Amino acid sequence: MSRSIAVIGAGPSGFYAVDGLVRALPDARIDIIDRLPCPYGLVRYGVAPDHQGTKAVQRQFERLLAKPIVRFIGNVEVGRDVAIADLAALYDALIIATGCSRDRRLGIPGEDLAGVVGSGAFVGWYNGHPDFAELDPLRPDMHTVAVIGAGNVAIDVARVLAKTADEMVKSDIAPHAAAAIAGLDLTEISLVARRGPADANFTGNELAEMSRLAAFQATVQSEVLDGVTAPDSDPAPERMRKAKNLELLRSFAAADTPRRLRFQFWGMPVALHGVDGKVRELELADTRHPERRWRQPADLVVTCIGYDPSPPVGLLLERGHIAHDDGRVRDLPGAYVVGWAKRGPTGVIPTNRADSLALVKVVVDDLAAPPASEKAGPGGLDALLSARGVRIVDSAAWRRIETAENAAGQAEGRPRVKLGTWRLLEQAAHGEP
Question: Candidates 3.30.300.30, 2.130.10.10, 3.50.50.60, 2.40.110.10; correct CATH number of 105-305?
Answer without folding.
Answer: 3.50.50.60
